[in-house]
Amino acid sequence: MENELAILIGSVAGAVLSLFFKYVPGINVKWDQLKSETKQMFMGLALVLTAAAMYGVACIPAAPEVLVVVSCGGKGLTQVAFALFGALTSNQGVDRITPNAKAVLAARGQ
What we know:
The chain is an all-alpha fold and 110 residues long. The chain has one domain. The chain contains 5 helices and no strands. The model has no long low-confidence stretch (mean pLDDT 90).
C-alpha cells in the first residue's frame, strides 16, 4: 500500500507543479519565455527535491505518521524512485496535453 500511495503523491505533485506554472497569472507568461531546457531542468530538479523530501521525512524519528508515505531504508529508496518516475511522467504529460493560457498566447502574439 505504501508504494502505491507514494506513486500517487508523486504523480499528483508532478501534475500540480505543471499546472501551477502553466496557469498562474504572471508566472505563466514568464515561464513560457524561458528556454525549454531551462524549464525541463527546473521541473526535474523540483521533483527530485520533492522525492528527496519524502524520503527525508520518513527517516526523521519524530515525524508525524501522517507525513510518512515511504519507509526509511532500501525499500524506501525504491518507493521514492517509483514516486519520482510517476511525478516526472505526470508532469510532462500534463504539460503536453493542456492548452496554453490566453495570457501566454497574447504574449506570443497569437
